[in-house]
Structure to design on (493 residues):
């Protein structure tokens, strides 16, 4: 079965691309999908740390591209999930070490063996970003409910449109329902109003995410975490299931608005 | 044989080469370009080429053929810029970019001014996202929103059938009679001729508005109602 190739990108740094990639990978693999994630951030690799696989790296993506190892040798199997693999980025090189066609070649070789190939894009809209989106079938744009992050997401969505990458879907990360209620944070409505793209998930702000990332065990493993649940829901939606959005506010008024916005009601 | 240089304008841009052609028949343009390429193979070898075809209407076969012919000569055609929606669609079908990220160079622009009358308008049927810049020597009409971070600079009027939240400048050549209209007029910055204004208050219940320079030479906006 040919894999679905999904790139996560954002424009702005620090909005949670890598965390989202790691969590979606874990959530998909926990649901019995075969998943490989590729760290596209050459020179500033992080995905291995968040997945807790840093100490197992022998070869990386640049080694594969420059022919120092076979693709299989650079694939690190997850500690807990046998169907989850990571291809780490090189830490001692930079974005210019790979090209868009290198990326497409690597992804082509992976397609037949996996259900999902997740690519973690670096921040920015330069070469690293271009490499990361080159092979994507689908692009998920991660943003925070902050004016600057939304502005950058808008720019990235514009680039994706002009590159004919198909409609992007949005992950709204780190939403704080209490702040939205007190009108101190952009609401999902405000964000969607501007960006006008499909919303695939809202992840509430959750300190467990930071704790889990530092431990190298993504929060998607944590059955109790709200953020973990949000990522598991996104994974289900990527598989084509219809999952209602999390009720982020006890009264459910926000939730109803989101439902209306996304046309699920 | 015709002088090929009169048909083509070639200039270096940051992303490679930009070739502008005029509205002579496509076959003539295509052979002019190839002749030019073949006469200076060393200059063109390995180039990234963007093609500005102005108002030419081109089919998939036309562009695909040119792309293949250029590719045989070691030239990578990556973008086709056009004012014709048909040509834009064609380029998109072939996976070519239809916008180059920086504003179109001055020369190509002046080229079009000569072709266009005073009353010419550019109609764009899409939302302008952050980072998009539209410069036009006439009126600009947008069916969609203008998001923060997008810019429109027009020598004539600017009409936005949507929300205006970016930067717009009407009457850019100094025309103080130019106006800016939008269904929700909340720009980051608005300019008419040399007058500058910003949005002071967020619109809670937006109504269509028109901004213009009043008799005292100041920018003002008023409701855009049918009984004006």
């Amino acid at each position: 079965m040919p894999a679905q190739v999904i790139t996560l990108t954002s424009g702005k740094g620090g909005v949670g691309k890598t965390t989202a990639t790691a969590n979606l990978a874990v959530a998909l693999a926990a649901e019995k999908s075969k998943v490989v994630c590729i760290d596209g951030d050459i020179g500033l690799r992080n995905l291995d740390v968040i997945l807790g696989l840093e100490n197992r790296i022998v070869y990386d993506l640049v080694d594969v591209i420059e022919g120092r190892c076979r693709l299989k040798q650079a694939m690190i199997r997850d500690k807990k999930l046998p169907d989850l693999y990571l291809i780490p980025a090189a830490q001692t090189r930079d974005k210019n070490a790979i090209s868009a066609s290198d990326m497409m070649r690597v992804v082509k070789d992976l397609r037949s063996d996996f259900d999902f190939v997740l690519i973690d894009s670096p921040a920015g809209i330069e070469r690293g970003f271009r490499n990361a989106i080159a092979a994507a079938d689908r692009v998920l744009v991660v943003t925070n409910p902050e004016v600057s992050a939304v502005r950058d997401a808008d720019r990235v969505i514009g680039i994706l449109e002009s590159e004919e990458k198909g409609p992007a879907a949005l992950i709204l990360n780190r939403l704080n329902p209490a702040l939205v209620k007190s009108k101190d944070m952009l609401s999902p409505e405000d964000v969607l109003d501007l960006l006008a793209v499909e919303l695939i998930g809202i992840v509430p702000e959750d300190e467990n995410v930071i704790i889990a990332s530092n431990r190298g065990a993504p929060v998607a493993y944590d059955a109790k975490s709200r953020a973990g649940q949000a990522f598991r829901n996104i994974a289900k939606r990527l598989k084509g299931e219809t999952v209602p959005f999390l009720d982020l506010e006890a009264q459910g008024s926000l939730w109803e608005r989101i439902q209306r916005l996304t046309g699920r009601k | 044989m015709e002088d090929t240089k009169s048909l083509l304008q070639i200039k270096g841009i940051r992303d490679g080469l930009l070739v502008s052609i005029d509205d002579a028949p496509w076959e003539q343009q295509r052979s002019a370009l190839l002749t030019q390429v073949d006469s200076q193979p060393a200059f063109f070898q390995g180039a990234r080429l963007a093609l500005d075809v102005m108002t030419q209407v081109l089919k998939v076969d036309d562009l695909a053929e040119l792309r293949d012919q250029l590719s045989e000569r070691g030239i990578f055609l990556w973008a086709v810029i056009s004012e014709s929606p048909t040509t834009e669609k064609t380029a998109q079908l072939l996976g070519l970019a239809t916008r180059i990220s920086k504003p179109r160079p001055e020369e190509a622009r002046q080229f079009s001014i000569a072709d266009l009358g005073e009353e010419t308008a550019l109609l764009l049927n899409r939302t302008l996202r952050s980072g998009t810049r539209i410069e036009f020597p006439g009126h600009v009409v947008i069916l969609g929103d203008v998001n923060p971070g997008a810019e429109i600079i027009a020598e004539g009027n600017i009409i936005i059938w949507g929300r205006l939240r970016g930067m717009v400048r009407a009457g850019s050549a100094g025309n103080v009679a130019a106006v800016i209209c939008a269904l929700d007029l909340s720009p980051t910055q608005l300019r008419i001729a040399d007058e500058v204004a910003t949005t002071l208050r967020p619109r809670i219940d937006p109504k269509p508005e028109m901004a213009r320079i009043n008799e005292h030479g100041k920018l003002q906006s008023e409701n855009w109602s049918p009984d004006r």
Remarks:
- The interface with chain A takes residues 92, 95, 97-99, 127, 129-132, 145, 147-149, 165 of chain B (CB under 8 Å).
- Chain B has two domains: 4-93, 117-223.
- The helical segments of chain B are 26-39, 41-44, 60-72, 85-93, 106-115.
